[in-house]
Write a structure and sequence with these properties.
The protein contains 3 helices and 5 strands; from the N terminus they run E-H-H-E-H-E-E-E. The chain is of the alpha+beta class. Strands 3-4-5 form a 3-stranded antiparallel beta sheet, with no helix packed on it. Strands 1-2 form a two-stranded parallel ribbon. Strand 3 and strand 4 form a beta hairpin. Helix 2 packs parallel to helix 3. The longest helix has 17 residues.
């Protein structure tokens, strides 16, 4: 089973206290883990301050960052075992 939340940024926009979003996401990820499922959550790092992002990040096991590198799109995976170190190129297939 896979669960995706399109944008934590939207939740943070409409909720006054980011701690409420953290508590919701923490409870939600706990249920996902109990089902041995995969949860994917997205956030726009440019839409929030570093403190808010750091707090919300605490609810997750790992993080995947995406950027446009010199030779195209790249991703960096941290916090998940068995992943290569450093930025890695990737390509989206049609």
């Amino acid at each position: 089973m896979r669960v995706a939340v399109d944008s934590i940024s939207t939740l943070l926009l409409y909720v006054e206290d980011p701690r409420s979003v953290f508590r919701f996401v923490h409870a939600f990820t706990g249920r996902i883990a109990a089902l041995d499922a995969l949860g994917l959550f997205a956030a726009d790092p440019e839409a929030h301050d570093d403190r808010t992002l750091a707090m919300v990040r605490g609810a997750f096991d790992g993080r995947v960052r995406v950027r446009t590198g010199d030779r195209g799109p790249e991703l960096l995976v941290t916090g998940l075992p068995g992943q290569p170190a450093g930025w890695q190129p990737f390509r989206l297939e049609d």
